[in-house]
Amino acid sequence: MKADKLLRKFSGRTPGILGQEDFFRFAVLLPLVEVDNEAHVLFEVRANHLRRQPGEVCFPGGKLDESDPDEKYGAIRETMEELGLEESDITDVIPLDYMVSAFGTIIYPFAGVIANPAKISPNPDEVGDIFTVPLSFFKDTEPDTHKINFQVQPEDGFPFDLIVGGENYNWQARQMDEYFYHYEGQVIWGLTARILTHFLKLIGIRP
């Protein structure tokens, strides 16, 4: 087959993420609510009986189902399930930047408004508690920032003889900021703090 004919088969192709079929895909929602005429961010505390990350602060969200038509729907569906809401209760949903983690996951964050927070009824199978934080708190409060280092650790039997430099090969290491927000005894950190910080920068609260 000629080269030009080969490439014409892919005319108009939309690029994706290389190897994404092997990644776990999650969608989360950063929910905004109004409390005493002020915008707040709503957080969940994961139920203590959960196997993964019990008791940690998070946003509503979870793994995408094959039946989800898109990532936005997945974020809304998970929020409905975890907070006992209907789809009409969640409005103005917008996409934030998605994340590809070093641990084989793609996370699709969204921000949206819960129009009637009085209707919230947390699902005890997943949610231990909920709380809100006024946006003004994040405007006035800097997070604690610490570094995490990611380093390459080849497995036993790795074929160093096949690469230039062998066992002295200069692997690229990566350093990442980890944010910690403290609010009334709760610690917001990890992926939740990363999404929150991204959102705060988008709306101009954080530089």
UniProtKB/TrEMBL annotation:
Keyword Metal-binding: yes
Source organism: Mesobacillus campisalis
Classification via InterPro entries: CoAse, NUDIX_hydrolase-like_dom_sf, NUDIX_hydrolase_dom
Pfam families: NUDIX
Cofactor(s) the protein needs: Mg(2+); Mn(2+)
PANTHER family per record: MITOCHONDRIAL COENZYME A DIPHOSPHATASE NUDT8, NUDIX HYDROLASE
MF-aspect GO terms: coenzyme A diphosphatase activity; metal ion binding
Record domain Nudix hydrolase: where: 23-156
Listed name of the protein: NUDIX hydrolase
